[in-house]
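Researcher: Final request for today, and then I'll write up notes for the group meeting. The sequence and the SMILES for pyridoxal-5'-phosphate follow.
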Amino acid sequence: MGHFIPLSVPNFQGRELAYVTDAVSQGWVSSGGEYVSRFEKQVAAYTKMPGAVACQTGTAGLHLAMLLCGVRTGDLVIAPTLTFIAAVNPIRYVGAEPVFMDCDQSLCLDPEKLKSFCHEECRFDDGILIHRATGRRVRAVVVVHVFGNMAGMEAIVDIAVKYGLLIIEDATEALGTYYTGGRLAGRMAGSLGHVGVFSFNGNKIITTGGGGMLVSGDENTLRKAKYLSTQAKDDELYYIHEEVGYNYRMTNVQAAIGVAQLEQLESFIRVKERNFALYCEIIGTDGPLRMLPFREDTRSNHWFYSLYLDLEEIGLDRDALIQELEQRGIQGRPIWGLIHEQKPYRGSFAYHIERAFHYFERVVNLPCSTSLSEKDVEKVAYTVLEFAGR
Ligand SMILES: Cc1ncc(COP(=O)(O)O)c(C=O)c1O
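Model: Predicted protein-pyridoxal-5'-phosphate complex:
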């Protein structure tokens, strides 16, 4: 059968061990230490932002983002249903409620439906957006760049400005993705909202084991993020606290791995692009069995690959394909169960969800690790074609 081909595993071929050894031998293993600030500065520079705040996880960063955007009990926050649940749970952490939004063909939040929700379901009074049916304030929108593919940010930014919404960019999957054309040319995913958050979880394009990073163009927001993530200390000597803080700071050991990983990010992206191109060449990009593209006018980080099955045309079963792959030692995965159908969110407001169901039933993620060889990609792609009888 050959070796097992997992979906997405980390790649440590750089200076990870050297930097971790350095951090440990200096005795800086906790949240003090130079690797944390070095990693922050480097991510800020890479994303062209004035600063960054390193966190324990992407989820912690998203929790802080809610607090920094002033989301509070009783507020509504618009969020996608097609996403990993960690993009949504922080809304509840602060006592607010999600309003679930559909996706467009990019699998990211649909700007058209976002606009019609704001226009048709809400009223806009004195710069405040109120959901008519519940009388609640809609304070923010969480935009996820699904699988490293940029959401339609030109339209989303315009809608957010028009309706006074703060954008929380869940760029956990999209470090390295940026616009190459249009009015946002040169702008990185994560840098387009009020707050952006990256994740360095084990399956992400670069990893620190577990970790996250918050970026913002606003210095006060960055200062507050660091304050809240380090137990809200107003006096370091006497331990005075004027707010409830969190223990969300990244450790120096995590950051040491992060610095080494960031050095390799662009080369990881080149491998991801090359492997995606090979999948596209073998499986194709149109027809009933095809690889879903990344947005035009962007350089995507090509983090996760999506195979689309036209069920009607091809008479294929998604789960049978996943089982077949598994039997051949290949890990495939359906996209996440839609969040508005998960138990904690069944009572939440969901706005005309249609496409998300469509893609949920038809998309299978294929192996995308940067350690994949051409042979591995060929094996996966030809297994898919064989299963489909092509
Ligand atoms: C879309 C999305 N949001 C949030 C997260 C949470 O990040 P973390 O695992 O670092 O908490 C992840 C990844 O795990 C994710 O894919």
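Model: The chain has a mean pLDDT of 96. Residues 57-59, 83-84, 86-87, 144, 170, 172-173, 199, 201, 212 surround pyridoxal-5'-phosphate (CB under 6 Å).
Researcher: Thanks, that's everything.
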